[in-house]
Structure formats: C-alpha cells, structure tokens
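To make the argument concrete, we let one protein speak, a sequence paired with a row of structure tokens, as a model reads it:
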Amino acid sequence: MKLLGSVTSPYTRKVRVVLAEKKIDCDFETVDVAPSANPVNASNPLGKVPTLILDDGTALFDSRVIVEFLDNVSPIARLIPEENRERVAVRRWEALADGALDAGLLVRYESLRPKKEQSKAWVEKQSGKLKRGLAMIAAELGERAWCHGDRYSLADIAVGSCLGWVEFRRPGGVDWRAEYANLARIHDKLMERPAFADTAPR
C-alpha cells in the first residue's frame, strides 16, 4: 500500500498514527496538492490528501474511510470498538475533532489570500466553530485519562491530531493550551507516544 499525503496535514497525520499503532507497513509519499494539476488527481478526483492506494490499485480517500479500513485490516490494537454504541461514540469524537479542524483550516486558507480579499466575517464564523469545537472537546474530556472509555482509541488519535495542528498553525491566534489545562494534559501525553512523535508536523 502507499499513502499520499503531506507532513503538515492533520488528516494525513491521523492516518499515519493509525498505521503506526496498527503496525501496518505502508509507503508514504509526500505530495503537494496546492496546484490544480497535482499528482493525487489521478487516484483521487477530489485532489485531496490523505489518499491511500491499495495493493490492487484501488484508492481510498477521506481520512475517516481510510482509518476504518486500516483498523479492520489487522486485529492488532483495535482502535474502533465493535459494539455499536461504543463505535458510534468513538466516531463522534472523531467527527468533532475533524470538524474543528475543518474550521481551523478554513481560517488558515483565508489568511493566505491577499489582504484586501479576506473576509473578516468569514474568519469570525469559522473561528467560532473552531473555538466551540475545542470547548466541547475540553468539556467532554473532563478529567478522564482518555477521550472515550478507559483506553486509547481512534478518539484520542483524532483529538491529538487536531490539537497538534492547531498548536502548530495557530489559526486566528487560537491558544487552547492557555484556556484548557485538560487539553494540554492529554495532548502532551499523546505526543509521548512514538506514533505521534514520529509524525509531528514541521
């Protein structure tokens, strides 16, 4: 298998962490999807990363689809529970973290546009989504050791990828570390895991 991605993409990082935790061998090819004509287009018509190319040439895209596939490839270190309510709870954490990231990325993209073309209203709207998402993550995490249940899961990987990117890019000047001590605690604990340490954005 081959993963097409970017070292700064939080969604690519989520997949890379899952690959490492599951001990699945996979080639990693860094690609630049900024140009309209980019190398991902041939496999993924959306031109987005991450894109996973399977051994038979099938392409999987969207990090949520990819991580579900990978979790079922190997029984090692299951990250998504099998029982329906538990599985949905973990996937809900993932949707929340990814949704906050979506908003943060839109804030960043807007900041890269020429100053006179930027929309303050758009930035405020997306920043609000990001801040509310982080607030809910913090509230639901509380003082627990892990996001869901009593063990490490995809919920923690998604949240760690989100927090790591927001700290790396600081879209709109968001500083979750200063506001939420429990997010700083879980982030720092997750970054001690080799799978996170080896995939840090740079």
Notes: The mean pLDDT is 97. The beta strands are 2-5, 27-30, 51-53, 59-61. The radius of gyration is 17 Å. The first strand starts at residue 2 and ends at 5.
